[in-house]
Amino acid sequence: MMKEKSLNKQILHLLMLITISVIITVGTLSIINIYNSKKELINFNQSLVLKQVNTKINELINEIDDVSRYIKRNYGLDDKSSINNLLELKSFISSILVLNKDGIVENFYSKSVQQNVYKGFDYSNKEYYKKLKSTNVYWSNVFLSSVDETPTISYSFNMGNKIGVVLIDLSSLSTFVIKFKNQDGSHMIRVFDRNGIIIMNPDTKALISQRYDASSSEVFTELINKKSPDSHGVFKSNVSGEKQYGSYWQNSRTGWYLIVRNNYNEIMKPIYYIVVVFILLIIFFIALSIYLSFKISKKIFKSFDNLHTITSKIADGHYSLEHKDMYYEEFNKLLNSFSKMQEEIDKREDKLEQSLSSFKALFNSTMESIVLSHGYDIIDLNDVTVEIFGFESKDEAIGRNVLDFVSEDYKELVKERFKKNINEPYEVDFCRKDGTIINGLVQGKFLKLDGKNIRVSALIDISDVKSKDKLLFQQTKMASMGEMIGNIAHQWRQPLNVISTSASSIKLEKEFGILEDKQIDNAMEMIVQNALYLSKTIDDFRNFFRIDKSLEKFEIRDSIDKALKLLQASIKNHNLIIKTDFLDKKFEVEGYPNEFIQVIINLINNSKDAFIANDISPRIIEIRELVNRDSYKLKFSDNAGGIPDNILLKIFDPYFTTKHKSQGTGIGLYMSHQIIVDHMRGEFYVKNINYKVEEKNYKGCCFTIKLPKNISHSYTFEI
């Protein structure tokens, strides 16, 4: 059994959980949002600084390109004065060297007072000389200048058969870089050459003169080697050992790495303060929500307790209760609804008692037998059931199995209907208390009562109806028998005349003494053949009147041929023209063949009677077969005048006829309908048509027999 829980505690816990979850979620999202906003702002500023520094370096490179072009044009003309002027104008140039093709110093110009270079020095082993052999211009990495013994970067270029070398003063470049500072006063920019040698570090200038190699530091291993340009990352400073947050960019002309950085702790410090403030706010609001949750839930559950007291008393049958107003308006409205409910319950209980009495009266006054069962066990039945089954009281059936009162032949059918919950009516044979069998028409349906699936079964005793059906079939047979005797008389007349004539001829010839053996043989042969024909005719009619006892498979076309053979004399005598349009393949069905022959005979006889009554000629009856994927159709069409529209829907009713009492009983089409629909599980219907004969239109009707293909029957029928 599930353990009962306190609604008060659950709602209180749920209210607190939701409130605290919302506060924590909102606080956390706010902190994350602030952190991301701060980070995005820093990223934007760093990217902007990188772009500005890179632009400045490109401007410097362009100026140096201009200087190299100027030297190419003016060297050798008035080289001394023009190049000295160039040194004075361009503050970023410390010295200019001119080498011959072998790397020997041909000329030099310098701002430095202390000069350690002279004409004729061999500089062929210098990197800026060797690298220039494979390219037109070359930017060197940081090296110690031999001119003034300071860290320098050179720009070398070809001058025909000479080489120009511009030595760049790095201090001039730092003038622009030192403008970019962090909040803690440190500089943002670091510049390294392509080998990782530091070019610029305004915070630690000694590293420049030391030509510090940072290629193994985290700025390279964690940022430059792992991140793409303009991406951001965290790395540790080799100088201070503190975490840095920054990005980098590589200049496409020089290959220099431009690093922008901020102290990571300085970035996080304001965020830490905000987080602390938010946490304090979250704790405050959580405490406030807990207090309010307790206070509100206490008032709510006090109202719930009052409602519980009132509803408990209502459940015990105390409908006249007074109540006090509660704190919340909604609960007062609910209490007013309870007051109305008290009155309505009182009224409905009275109505329910009346309805129950009415239901019991209806349950026992209906003409149908009604049985209620749970599974197969009977739980109730009405008085009609007691009477039909011959019980002395309901107690004899209640608690017993429904199948105890079902005939053995129908138990599986009933089980199937129960299992599949089929609601359509069906026929079943039942056993009464004394063992006698009754024919019943049953219909059932499952209903939900008290949480159980209850089968409500209604039964009608149709034993008398079945007896009348048998009688109708016999009357139909007897009515047909009268017509058949007339047909026998017509078919026997000619053979009997032949036999009589042959016998008289032999007798007469014998009296005159002219009888010969050959004449006797011919006459005897004629008599024997006609006697056999008479015997065959008797067999055909006897087979037709034989009662079908069991189902058998038969071909529709064979039944049509037999019917036409039985009606041969009548067809000929009344000038009927039978037209047939049969399929190539014969259609086979399971049923009672003589019953089906009876249907065909009824249809042809009805057409014959209509032709006679309406005096119509020519008299054409067309029999046509049609078939599709699911069904087979047999159509009987004539030009006998049709059926009046006002009786078209009544012709299949029992005892309905438009003929004189001496000519018909009105059961032929009714029984034909029963045979096709009930016994063969098909359809049987009629409609008026226009029938064209020799360019002339006649009114007529068309009867259609529609049978399902591949049908399996599981019923029995006796006549």
TrEMBL record:
<dbReference type="Pfam" id="PF02518">
    <property type="entry name" value="HATPase_c"/>
</dbReference>
<dbReference type="InterPro" id="IPR003594">
    <property type="entry name" value="HATPase_dom"/>
</dbReference>
<keyword id="KW-0902">Two-component regulatory system</keyword>
<keyword id="KW-0547">Nucleotide-binding</keyword>
<dbReference type="GO" id="GO:0005524">
    <property type="term" value="F:ATP binding"/>
</dbReference>
<dbReference type="InterPro" id="IPR029151">
    <property type="entry name" value="Sensor-like_sf"/>
</dbReference>
<dbReference type="InterPro" id="IPR036890">
    <property type="entry name" value="HATPase_C_sf"/>
</dbReference>
<dbReference type="Pfam" id="PF13426">
    <property type="entry name" value="PAS_9"/>
</dbReference>
<feature type="transmembrane region" description="Helical">
    <location>
        <begin position="12"/>
        <end position="35"/>
    </location>
</feature>
<dbReference type="Pfam" id="PF00512">
    <property type="entry name" value="HisKA"/>
</dbReference>
<keyword id="KW-1003">Cell membrane</keyword>
<feature type="transmembrane region" description="Helical">
    <location>
        <begin position="271"/>
        <end position="294"/>
    </location>
</feature>
<dbReference type="GO" id="GO:0005886">
    <property type="term" value="C:plasma membrane"/>
</dbReference>
<dbReference type="InterPro" id="IPR035965">
    <property type="entry name" value="PAS-like_dom_sf"/>
</dbReference>
<protein>
    <recommendedName>
        <fullName>histidine kinase</fullName>
        <ecNumber>2.7.13.3</ecNumber>
    </recommendedName>
</protein>
<keyword id="KW-0472">Membrane</keyword>
<dbReference type="InterPro" id="IPR036097">
    <property type="entry name" value="HisK_dim/P_sf"/>
</dbReference>
<dbReference type="InterPro" id="IPR033479">
    <property type="entry name" value="dCache_1"/>
</dbReference>
<dbReference type="InterPro" id="IPR000014">
    <property type="entry name" value="PAS"/>
</dbReference>
<dbReference type="InterPro" id="IPR003661">
    <property type="entry name" value="HisK_dim/P_dom"/>
</dbReference>
<keyword id="KW-0812">Transmembrane</keyword>
<dbReference type="Pfam" id="PF02743">
    <property type="entry name" value="dCache_1"/>
</dbReference>
<keyword id="KW-0418">Kinase</keyword>
<keyword id="KW-1133">Transmembrane helix</keyword>
<dbReference type="InterPro" id="IPR005467">
    <property type="entry name" value="His_kinase_dom"/>
</dbReference>
<feature type="domain" description="Histidine kinase">
    <location>
        <begin position="487"/>
        <end position="711"/>
    </location>
</feature>
<keyword id="KW-0067">ATP-binding</keyword>
<keyword id="KW-0808">Transferase</keyword>
<dbReference type="GO" id="GO:0000155">
    <property type="term" value="F:phosphorelay sensor kinase activity"/>
</dbReference>
<keyword id="KW-0597">Phosphoprotein</keyword>
